[in-house]
Write a structure and sequence with these properties.
about 220 residues, alpha/beta, Rossmann fold, 6-stranded mixed sheet, 4-stranded antiparallel sheet, 10 strands
């Protein structure tokens, strides 16, 4: 089943001297259960494309369907609902909330979804156990290593049981050992049916996926 379909997707900024194009005429289909990698040099539009696919940004023109929903026609409220329901995001810089403990960071997306307290407690306990973070549950992000922080970030993305995980250079700030551990988690998730789209410069990370597309100057290379 096709999860994502884009046609003619373009992103441009008007900086006074005419438009500056970041993405140009992107036509992309992603099937449910895929593990897709987006590669390309810095400035090629990789992160911009990921943010548009994740409903964190919008295209300047073109069409985007998420399942059967015409994203290019939806209200901000509807886009926010889709994002909360279906999509988990993992960033290079973790994006944990500094003054919340590991447990509280994991609980935050469940609060947004208005999950009852008893159910939240169970889901958080499951994630702490799954990611071997039970002993760290009362620590704050600055008390964790980079790899531990990224494990919390992945667990937080997963706790809402998303159909799609978007990962933007998820191992960029990690040691090779920590990075491999994160990629193995993504591999397990994908095997279990979660669709994953990652942006990376790493050929070894790309090898975990089943398909690679390459961007150059905003175009998908043919």
């Amino acid at each position: 089943m096709t999860m994502i379909k884009t046609r003619g997707l373009t992103k441009a900024y008007d900086e006074g001297g005419g438009p500056t194009f970041v993405l140009r005429d992107i036509a992309l289909d992603v099937e449910e259960g895929e593990f897709l990698t987006i590669m390309g040099p810095s400035g090629s539009g990789k992160s911009t494309l990921l943010h548009i696919l994740g409903l964190l940004d919008s295209a300047s023109s073109g069409e985007y369907w998420f399942y059967d929903q015409p994203v290019h026609r939806l209200s901000e409220r509807r886009l926010a609902e889709l994002h909360k329901r279906w999509i988990g995001f993992v960033f290079q810089s973790y994006h944990l909330i500094d003054d919340l403990t590991v447990t509280e960071n994991l609980e935050t997306p469940l609060l947004y979804k208005k999950v009852p307290a008893s159910e939240r407690k169970g889901k958080v306990a499951d994630m702490l156990d799954r990611f071997q973070m039970v002993g760290k549950k009362d620590l704050f992000p600055n008390q964790l290593s980079g790899g531990q922080q990224q494990r919390v970030a992945v667990a937080r993305a997963l706790i809402i049981e998303p159909k799609l995980i978007l990962a933007d250079e998820p191992t960029g700030n990690l040691s090779s050992k920590e990075g491999t551990a994160i990629m193995e988690i993504f591999k397990e998730l994908n095997t279990a049916g979660t669709t994953i789209i990652q942006v990376t410069h790493s050929e070894s990370n790309a090898a975990y996926g089943k398909r690679v597309i390459r961007l150059f100057d905003g175009w998908i290379e043919k």
